[in-house]
Amino acid sequence: MKPLVFLAAAVTAWMVASPVLRAQAPAAVAPAAAPAPAAAPASAAPASSSSGTAPQGILGNDVPMFDGGSDVLSWDGKHWNINNQQIFRARLEKFLAAPEQTDADYKAYQGIIAQIMDLLEPTTYKPANLDEAWGLLHKASNYSIDANLCDALADAIYSTWLANNEGERLNQAASALERQRSELEWDSQNAAADLTDISIGKPADKSEAAAWAADQKEVRDMKMQPYVQRLAEVNAMMAANKVKTEASLLQSKIEFQSLLVQFFMQRRFQHVVMGTQFYRYLFGDGDSALHLSKDAENMFMQTSGMPPTLGVLDSLSDEAMRDVKEGADAFLFLLDQKELASATERLSETFAVGEYMPDVRNLPREKKRQALLFAQKENQLLSAIDVKDYSLAEKLTNDLQAMASDFDASKPLAAIQTARTVSAMHLAKAKNAAVSGDHETVEAELKAAMEIWPRNPDLADVSKIIFAQADVQQQALTDLDRLISQHNYRLIFDDRVRYIAATALYPDRQDALKKILEQMQQVEGVIIQSTEIEKHGDYAGAWEQVEKAAQDYPDDPKLNQLRAQLTTEAADFVRSIRTAQDLEKKDEVGSSLAWYLKSQGIYPSSEFAQEGIARLVKQILPDAS
């Protein structure tokens, strides 16, 4: 499992670090530091900074780490779900809509690749196979699907051959220098031997002997100096040639390894396998260690549990190709079982790893089309939930359930139902607050309901009710003020329920309305009482009750209507009372008293007649008790 985790990390890192992807990545998830392209040589050591900042890794500030359980890649302090990346979805949908590559050119290309691998197979390899396989690389590069990668591999092989030729030339130069050095050493030894016999003729005198010895040493040094100087030069040239040979070989290895790592990052696993086979025949020293930076080496060790070697890269590529084949087979099987959700996931995973593998490129278009439709609806569902369009989300969930028997609808349905419930609770609170006139709560609850479910159809209906209620209340208050100014208390009383509700939040208007309604209750009481008296034939008594109330409420239309009716029914009594009242106003006391007495004769219980007689008697006899 570790190799596959490393492979996913490497593949995803390449996708994130690719210059094309960086240009199209959404701004919300773009990494803070621009990573180096994955095609950079893997052997490039991290440069040390003179300012003391930490060196950059091979792909950014740190090594990408992939969590296979959640499909989340962590890199440079950011996190991505590789299946939700816009660029990945775009590439996947383009692949799903493309026809399968079963044309003659693709078959021919794969035939050349297979022929190259057969030529490099260790069990059947011959030295002549290397040249033949190299020639086939140029032939394979003629096909567009190859993207000239075989040309790049052929160029790397040719560069290695040039480096080997340079090494052979340096080796020949070293042999010549070695022969020259031997000759110089021989000449130097002979020169020294010739000078050992010059001691013959040495003077006996000590002072002359010392001078003679100094002269002889000078002669010897001058004779040996050319041989010694040339010997030093030859030794230096031999050392330089040895370093140059080793450096040339190492540089050739590093460039070749960088190309193989680039192929691996680009998920061109067939090219990786071909490249590793060429590498083993080109460099026969058995050194297969990859020359990587420290961060890349740690990534290999931590994820694969193995040292970074050519064999690890080769085995990971073989494992990836096997996994891609199994993934393609699993997709076809799950599709036949109507398990479209799992089939789409398997195809997405397989495409991420082996986009250029034949098992992926040869999948039938009509079968990929089913996965494409499912993926599009699934992406629409994610977008609908993201913008909180739960009506559309519910429809898409039902469609996905109908398409795929294994689609898990629990999460989207839970999100939809929760949003509906919470939104309904806020709308209920808004209704209650509207009834009690709490405008701040109404606004807050409507806002909360809109944030949870902006396109909730109930939101518009409740808003209309609340706003209509507010308009009705304002109209009722306007009508009430107008009727009060007109003293039209009868209309206020007849529509009292409406005005009572409208003045619920206005105490001053409540008090005025309360007084009006109390007065109108009294008027209604008089009308009811007079109507009952009228039913018993006591028209004068009924009129007298209405007349007293009309003095206080002269503008009430209902009271005035009953008053006019009773005036006609008790005409004699009414005429007598009004004649007595008119004469009393004119100070015709006797005549007025006569008419009051006549009125009392018509209706003995008349309060108007009794009160008038009492006033006039007191006026005639002021001292009478």
Name the features.
625 residues, mainly alpha, three-stranded antiparallel β-sheet, 3 strands, disordered N terminus
How would you sum up this structure, described in words?
This protein is an all-alpha fold and 625 residues long. 74% of the residues lie in helices and 2% in strands. The chain contains 25 helices and three strands. The protein has helices at residues 2-17, 19-24, 86-97, 104-119, 127-140, 149-195, 206-265, 269-282, 294-304, 310-336, 340-354, 358-361, 365-386, 390-403, 410-436, 439-452, 457-485, 489-494, 496-502, 507-535, 539-552, 557-569, 571-585, 589-602, 607-620; strands at 65-67, 72-75, 78-81. The protein has a three-stranded antiparallel sheet. β2 (72-75) and β3 form a beta hairpin. α17 packs across α19, α20 packs parallel to α22 and α23 (571-585) runs antiparallel to α24 (589-602). The N and C termini lie far apart (127 Å). The relative contact order is 0.06.
